[in-house]
From TrEMBL:
Chain segments annotated as transmembrane: none
Span of domain Adenylate kinase active site lid: 127-163
Name of the protein this chain belongs to: Adenylate kinase
EC number: 2.7.4.3
Coiled-coil annotated residue ranges, if any: none
Keyword annotations from UniProtKB, A to Z: ATP-binding, Cytoplasm, Kinase, Nucleotide biosynthesis, Nucleotide-binding, Transferase
Lineage, highest ranks first: Bacteria, Bacillati, Actinomycetota, Actinomycetes, Kitasatosporales
Length: 215
């Protein structure tokens, strides 16, 4: 299957992408991984992307599309893939359609993880990270530490990352609504959109997604 995963920040796309890709035996292709891989390997696209990033500028769509195209042409993606974070806007969605058409392929579904804005803010703004080890993550509501502000694992101080503040989260949501949300209507018009609730336990959301994709 060839699937695009969409949803606002905090919807759990990364978590669900990993589970779905494993269940469907297809590679999980995320924008973040594409950028890290190309930059670390000093590819032409990676070097071009880094030059924009170092200047604090947005990476042009053509570079992101080029990275995605190269990745989707690798042998492990021949039988399908799950795209996470790409396409990010309608222009990229149109480029993806053209790319797949040229290769004699098409998308099978676009899975939209739906979650209310207030829930997104609650999920992200409540997150607390251990200063000693960023792998130790807690949540004020869902997975609170035994002692407020103290890591259960190592006793380190828990803090809120600056990009997890409510103001920053709402800014990220505004960017999502403006840039990415229009692709939902774009794919809905093509009859590809499948929307599920992203609320509840991870396993329940995964089950919902698998059931929806089977239909």
């Amino acid at each position: 299957m060839r699937i695009v995963l969409v949803g606002p920040p905090g919807a759990g796309k990364g978590t669900q992408a990993a589970f779905l890709a494993k269940n469907l035996s297809i590679p999980h292709i995320s924008t973040g991984d594409l950028f890290r891989a190309n930059i670390s390997q000093n590819t032409e696209l990676g070097l071009r992307a880094k030059s924009f990033m170092d200047d604090g500028k947005l990476v042009p769509d053509e570079i992101t599309v080029g990275m995605a195209k190269d990745r989707m042409q690798q042998p492990d993606a021949a039988g399908g893939f799950l795209l996470d974070g790409f396409p990010r806007n309608v222009s990229q969605a149109e480029a993806l359609d053209a790319m797949l058409k040229d290769a004699g392929m098409k998308l099978d579904a676009v899975l939209d993880l739906e979650v209310a804005e207030d829930e997104v803010v609650k999920r992200i703004a409540g997150r607390r990270i251990c200063r000693n080890d960023s792998a130790h993550v807690f949540h004020e509501t869902y997975t609170p530490p035994k002692v407020p502000g103290v890591c259960d694992t190592c006793g380190g101080e828990l803090y809120q990352r600056s990009d997890d503040s409510e103001a920053t989260v709402r800014t990220r949501l505004e960017v999502y609504h403006t840039q990415t949300e229009p692709i939902i209507d774009y794919y809905k018009a093509q009859g590809l959109l499948v929307t599920i609730s992203a609320l509840g336990e991870v396993k329940d959301v995964t089950r919902r997604a698998m059931d929806a994709l089977k239909k």
